[in-house]
Design brief:
Protein name: Myosin IB
Helix content: 40-55%
Organism: Myripristis murdjan (pinecone soldierfish)
Strand content: 15-25%
GO molecular function, one term: actin filament binding
Number of strands: 31
Subcellular location: Cytoplasm, Cell cortex
Number of helices: 32
Largest sheet: 8 strands, mixed
InterPro entries: IQ_motif_EF-hand-BS, Kinesin_motor_dom_sf, Myosin_head_motor_dom-like, Myosin_TH1, MYSc_Myo1, P-loop_NTPase
Length: 1099
């Protein structure tokens, strides 16, 4: 049996809102939240996809996912945007139906990303080939260009589309893309000159300043500092997660791929730079003799640079900012502009320049991506347009955006109902009219040619005389006061109602998504969208090739006195064209929802989502789909999914699928009023019936799984047993045959083999003995021959040496006999001595001892007469290596060795404790008093550097017991402090210390004797014990010896000494302790004049 997945398998919440039971706004939101929490961001309403922005990357857009949804039924897998894209593409390719995908939602809901996903999916599943891939790449790369020039950072979205975009992608009969056409709607050009707090201008300005090379910026006369340009807001100049420099490189690459020439890219960047320069032009008032104010440019540097970029004469543009020429019939009247009017003209020029540049970019992209073939094409349209907007301050832009959304809602309801009705008629199901809210009355309020709001706004703009926003509102109050979806303060007051939430300068419209309050301020100016003719003509005079194309009305030869169409009229016409285009195509809907205003993942704000659900009309959409039958499915998949619930259809149904479904439903006793059988589909009225079928299927699948496991395990065990049984029979037969043959052979040949083996063993033994004997004789012969040869060689060498020596002696004697007969002995003697000395020094060099100062090894003296030199060389070498050793010491190490040396001079062979202290380094500060926070107070009480810090025991004369004290030694004094509290008990200057007494044994007792009559001696001497006695006394002795004005400290080493306690002198006597005392030193009081210290004997 083939197992297929389904929308209903492993479902989190309800994947299709049509099946939600019970249906309410709260259950709708709870289902969305449940799926969002489990990373299920897509949910269906029939064929409509709801997309909740996750604000993070999810692993559901991989190439593997594309293949998973490719050529699959819409409801076959869990909800996904790829399912809708695949359904639309296959309908276009296989059924020759033009498609459109309508993506709506508010800013930040993910509309732009959704359109990118649709286009990338279609690009992935359509055909391949060099030309096809080029077209696909151009279509995809048009997005970065349009985003750079048409998107901006807002408080709701870091990459918000500030224009509406509709792209028609054209395909051939095979489904391969041929090209496309892009239409843009209502670019928010007011953002060029002013941005709300927390928002940015269009991306391209920041990308150009951040990513362009220094050479490019120099050519454009720009700098990287954003603060130099008045049109760029500084509070949000940088955005986390947006790399403007990298995005600029992406845009340049995309423009190249789309087909922009290098000079065209340079022209576009020059216009962007000109807009930035235009914003820096400022004006100052100047009074004329006739009493009128006139504006003049303050600093002409930016004006000059802008004119150089665009190739305009500076005087021409400067005059256009100061004067306005009005033409009436055959007359021309020139009037001066004040400062406010000059700023208005500057901003109007900037907005028109950028808006026309954007329109030119769209046209230029269309020229590159349009289909070349003239035959009829299949078309898939993708509409990415602004969603319904309700702000605190709503103006003209929000009014026409919401008008567009009213039209989209109208066509959505009409097309949805039409699609439902067509399916019912196609399947032969009776169609019943469905009641729903028709928003045609709201659309008529706005677009009616006689008394619609847009018509009255155009009428006000064209009317002679004084026209203001207030006169426009008065006209609305006159014409629309009785309309049920229009409210204003005057219309409310005329009905004797008071609404303080409705200001005097506002009106309110009851849209399908809720009430929206519009402020009329700016309606007339924004609808007029006037650009003074002087500025148009000045732009046309530019030498810049692109500027002439953007301002054709500035041509003096083609002066047109007719007033240009208003912004509202143009938008109404483009929306009408769009609606007619959409009605000719099969619609597919993606409703985008923003889960929170923080642009953060894992946050679902119920109030915000509820608001979007209402103005997107999602609940009404569900009710329309559920008004007839909530669920429908073709007979074949239905029978394949539920056939295991009936014995007659399981495991195979041999007849038509419809009859099998009828038998199945009859067996399950599903009420007849819950079902309706169409020509190719079964229709289920209530979702509860579907869930009943799913629950029965789930139980049945569990039983089938158990049965399959049981049968499989039994078959597997039986197969294994039969295989083992067969193998055992075969093995046993072969073994019995082999064993019988072996027994027969062994019985016949055992005796013969034994005799043969015995003969072979004897022969082998004789051979081994013969080999051993021959080898021994041969080895002996070889050894004797080698010995004779070696002896002969030795005799030959010796003979040669003797002959050579005699011969050399004979030659020397013959040569020097006649010259050195008298002094020959002296010369030979000196030569011999010299050779002996040379041999001596070379031998000394080879046998030189190590560099360790404690190494006492020295080569033996070879000759008696070298004894003095031998000893002197040994002394010099020892001094030299000691010097080399000392040169390695640091100052700290040197001081430590000096202390160790001084300790050796004081205690060596005098104190039994000294040998054990030699290997212990003198640390000094054992308490780390400067770092330990416990002793911070004590450390601050001692002004001088602490040379030694240790814990000692102060001996009490009364009982001989010790109390723990902190002993601190500085350069001028020593201090005794309480160990627990850190309180100073005694501070004694070193000049008051006369001597120190210690024993000769291995104890740690020592007495500090103070000068009689000094202030420190009032309480008597100190008897202390410490584990670091050697170090303490060495540092005391060293500190006292380094001062020139003090006497050398006397160290008394004796086993019996006197200690002054206040007025009494007490004798401290040290004795060797017995085994009963253990290994510790003990101090006991014998009488008032004697303290006895018992020291354990050391092994």
């Amino acid at each position: 049996m083939e197992v297929k997945t389904s929308l209903l398998d492993n479902m989190i919440g309800v994947g299709d809102m049509v099946l939600l039971e019970p249906l309410s706004e709260d259950s709708f939101l709870e289902n969305l939240r449940n799926r969002f929490d489990h990373n299920e961001i897509y949910t269906y309403i029939g064929s409509v996809v709801i997309s909740v922005n996750p604000y993070r990357s999810l692993p559901i857009f991989t190439p593997e996912k594309v293949e998973e949804y490719r050529n699959r039924n819409f409801y076959e897998l869990s909800p996904h945007i790829y399912a809708l894209a695949d359904e639309a593409y296959r309908s276009l390719r296989d059924q020759d139906k033009d498609q459109c995908i309508l993506i709506t939602g508010e800013s930040g809901a993910g509309k732009t990303e959704a359109s990118k996903l649709v286009m990338s999916y279609v690009a992935a599943v359509c055909g391949k080939g060099q030309e096809v891939n080029k077209v696909k790449e151009q279509l995809l790369q048009s997005n970065p260009v349009l985003e750079a020039f048409g998107n901006a950072k807002t408080v709701r979205n870091d990459n918000s589309s500030r224009f509406g975009k509709y792209m028609d992608i054209e395909f051939d009969f095979k489904g391969d893309p041929l090209g496309g056409v892009i239409s843009n709607y209502l670019l928010e050009k007011s953002r060029v000159v002013k941005q709300p707090r927390g928002e940015r201008n269009f991306h391209i300005f920041y990308q150009l300043l951040s990513g362009a090379s220094e050479d490019t910026l120099k050519k454009l006369k720009l700098g990287r500092d954003f603060s130099k340009y008045n049109y760029l807001s500084l509070d949000s100049a940088t955005v986390n997660g947006l790399d403007d420099a990298a995005n600029f490189r992406t845009v340049r690459n995309a423009m190249q791929i789309v087909g922009f020439m290098e000079d065209e890219v340079q022209s576009v960047l020059e216009l962007v730079a000109a807009v930035l320069k235009l914003g820096n032009i400022e004006f100052k008032p100047e009074s004329r003799c006739n009493g009128f104010d006139e504006s003049r440019v303050k600093d002409k540097n930016d004006l000059k640079e802008m004119c150089e970029l665009l190739g305009i004469e500076q005087s021409v543009l400067e005059r256009a900012f100061s004067y306005r020429t009005v033409e009436a019939k055959m007359e021309k009247v020139s009037t001066t502009l004040n400062v406010a009017q000059a700023y208005y003209a500057r901003d109007a020029l900037a907005k028109n320049l950028y808006s026309r540049l954007f329109s030119w970019l769209v046209t230029r992209i269309n020229e590159s991506i349009k289909a070349q073939a003239k035959t009829r094409h299949k078309v898939m349209g993708v509409l990415d347009i602004y969603g319904f907007e309700i702000f605190e301050d709503n103006s003209f832009e929000q009014f026409i955006i919401n008008y567009c959304n009213e039209k989209l809602q109208q066509i959505f309801i009409e097309l949805t109902l039409r699609e439902e009705q067509e399916e019912y008629v196609r399947e032969g199901i009776e169609w019943t009219n469905i009641e729903y809210f028709n928003n045609a009355i709201i659309c008529d309020l706005i677009e009616n040619n006689q008394n619609g709001i847009l018509a009255m706004l155009d009428e006000e703009c064209l009317r002679p005389g004084t026209v203001t926003d207030d006169t426009f509102l008065d006209k609305l109050n006159t014409v629309c006061a009785e309309h049920q979806h229009f409210e204003s303060r005057l219309s409310k007051n005329s009905k004797f109602l008071t609404d303080h939430s409705l200001p005097h300068s506002c009106f309110r419209i009851q849209h399908y998504a809720g009430k929206v309050l519009y402020r009329v301020e700016g309606f007339v100016d924004k609808n007029n969208d006037l650009l003074y003719r002087d500025l148009s003509q000045a732009m046309y005079k530019a030498n810049h090739s692109l500027i002439k194309q953007l301002f054709p009305e500035g041509n003096p030869a083609k002066v047109n006195l007719k007033r240009p169409p208003t912004a509202g009229f143009q938008f109404k016409a483009s929306v009408g064209t769009l609606m007619r285009n959409l009605q000719t195509k099969n619609p597919n809907y993606i409703r985008c929802i923003k889960p929170n205003d923080k642009k953060a993942a894992h946050i679902f704000t119920e109030s915000l989502v509820r608001h979007q659900v209402r103005y997107l009309g999602l609940m009404e959409n569900v009710r329309v789909r559920r008004a007839g039958y909530a669920f429908r499915q073709p007979y074949e998949p239905c029978l394949e999914r539920y056939k295991m619930l009936c014995k007659q259809t399981w495991p195979h149904w041999r007849g038509p699928a419809r009859e099998g479904v009828e038998v199945l439903m009859a067996d399950l006793q599903v009420p007849a009023e819950e079902l309706s059988y169409g020509r190719s589909k079964i229709f289920i009225r209530n979702p509860r019936t579907l869930f009943f079928l799913e629950e029965r299927r789930r139980q049945c699948l569990q039983d089938l799984a158990t049965l399959i496991q049981k049968i499989y395990r039994g078959w597997k065990c039986r197969t294994q047993f039969l295989l083992l049984k067969k193998s055992q029979v075969v093995v046993a037969a072969w073994y019995r045959r082999f064993a019988k043959r072996c027994r027969n052979l062994c019985r016949n040949s055992i005796k013969t083999s034994a005799r043969k083996l015995l003969r072979e063993l004897k022969y082998q033994k004789r051979c081994e003995e013969a080999v051993t004997t021959i080898a021994a004789f041969w080895h002996g012969t070889q050894a004797r021959m080698e010995l004779r040869r070696l002896k002969q060689e030795a005799r030959n060498k010796h003979a040669v040496t003797v002959i050579w020596a005699y011969w050399q002696g004979t030659k020397v004697r013959r040569e020097y006999r006649k010259f050195f007969r008298a002094n020959a002995g002296r010369k030979i003697y000196d030569f011999t001595i010299q050779r002996i000395m040379q041999k001596y020094f070379l031998g000394l060099k080879k046998n030189m001892p190590s560099m360790s100062p404690i190494d006492k090894n020295w080569p033996a003296r070879p000759y008696l007469f070298l004894d003095g030199a031998h000893r002197e060389l040994r002394r010099i070498f020892h001094h030299w290596r000691c010097k080399k050793y000392r040169s390695q010491f640091t100052e700290e190490k040197k001081a430590v060795y000096e202390e160790k040396l001084e300790a050796s001079e004081i205690f060596k062979d005098k104190k039994a404790l000294y040998p054990s202290s030699v290997s212990q380094p003198f640390k000094g500060d054992y308490l780390e008093i400067s770092k330990n926070p416990k002793y911070q107070k004590l450390h601050s009480a001692v002004d001088e550097k602490v040379l030694l810090a240790d814990v000692v025991n102060k001996i009490n004369r009364a009982n001989g017991k010790g109390a723990a004290r902190i002993f601190l030694l500085t350069k001028n004094s020593f201090v005794l402090a309480d160990q627990k509290t850190g309180q100073v008990k005694a501070s004694v200057p070193l000049p008051d210390l006369t001597s120190v007494s210690v024993s000769t044994q291995s104890d740690g007792f020592f007495a500090l004797k103070l000068k009689e009559g000094s202030a420190s001696a009032a309480k008597g001497d100190f008897l202390l014990s410490s584990e670091h006695l050697i170090e303490i006394i060495t540092k005391l002795h060293r500190t006292g010896g380094t001062s020139a004005d003090r006497e050398q400290l006397n160290i008394d080493i004796s086993d019996e000494f006197l200690v002054q306690f206040k007025q009494d002198k007490v004798c401290v006597k040290f004795i060797q302790g017995g085994p009963k005392n253990g290994n510790s030193v003990s101090c006991k009081r014998k009488n008032n004049r004697l303290l006895e210290v018992s020291v354990p004997t050391t092994a």
